[in-house]
C-alpha cells in the first residue's frame, strides 16, 4: 500500500515528529510504502532551490499515486499545505485518515466547559475547520492516537 503522509515540515518539532511517527508506522507494517515529503531532498532541501510549480508537481504526483493519505490535523489550525493535500485526495477519491491528537478535545461532557461556551472568548475546546473535516469524513476517518492510526491503516490494507 502506498501512503502519502501530510503534515507541516518546516519547524524542527514538526520535522522530528514526522520522522518518528513515519518510522513507527514503517516498523508496524514494513510492507507499507510511505511518502514523507521532507525526505524528498529534490524539493525540500531548503539550501537548494525548488520553485512552487516544482514542489506542487512532485508532491501531487506522489499524492495522486497513493492508496491512502494520512493527514496530521494538529496545530493552531490545519496546516495550509495539508488542507490542500486533503482537497486533492478528496477530489481523487483517495481515502484519508486524519490524526487529531489535540488534548483540548477531551472533556466534552464537562458541564463547566460547555457552560463556558456561552461567554465570549471562553472556548475550552479546539476548533477544526468543518469543511476540511467533512472532506476527510466523506472518504475516511479521524483518529486521535498513534495506536488508532495504526489500526485504521491495518483496516485499509485488509
UniProtKB/TrEMBL annotation:
Recorded superkingdom: Bacteria
- What's one GO BP annotation on this UniProt entry? deoxyribonucleoside monophosphate catabolic process
Query: By its UniProt entry, which Gene3D superfamilies does this protein fall under?
Result: 3.40.50.450
Q: Can you name this protein? A: Nucleoside 2-deoxyribosyltransferase
InterPro entries assigned to the protein according to its UniProt record, in alphabetical order: 2'-dNMP_N-hydrolase, Nucleoside_deoxyribTrfase
Q: Tell me, what is one Gene Ontology molecular-function annotation carried by this entry?
A: 5-hydroxymethyl-dUMP N-hydrolase activity
Amino acid at each position: 500500500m502506498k501512503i502519502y503522509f501530510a503534515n507541516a515540515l518546516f519547524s524542527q518539532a514538526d520535522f522530528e515528529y514526522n520522522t518518528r511517527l513515519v518510522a513507527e508506522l514503517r516498523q508496524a507494517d514494513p510492507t507499507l510504502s510511505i511518502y514523507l515529503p521532507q525526505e524528498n531532498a529534490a524539493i525540500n532541501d531548503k539550501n537548494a532551490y525548488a520553485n512552487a510549480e516544482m514542489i506542487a508537481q512532485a508532491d501531487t504526483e506522489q499524492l495522486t499515486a497513493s492508496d491512502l493519505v494520512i493527514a496530521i490535523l494538529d496545530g493552531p489550525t490545519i496546516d495550509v499545505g495539508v488542507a490542500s493535500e486533503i482537497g486533492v485526495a478528496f477530489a481523487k477519491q483517495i481515502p484519508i485518515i486524519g490524526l487529531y491528537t489535540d488534548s483540548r478535545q477531551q472533556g466534552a461532557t464537562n458541564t463547566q466547559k460547555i457552560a463556558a461556551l456561552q461567554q465570549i472568548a471562553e472556548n475550552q475546546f479546539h476548533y477544526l475547520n468543518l469543511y476540511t473535516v467533512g472532506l476527510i469524513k466523506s472518504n475516511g476517518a479521524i483518529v486521535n492516537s498513534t495506536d488508532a492510526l495504526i489500526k485504521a491503516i491495518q483496516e485499509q490494507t485488509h
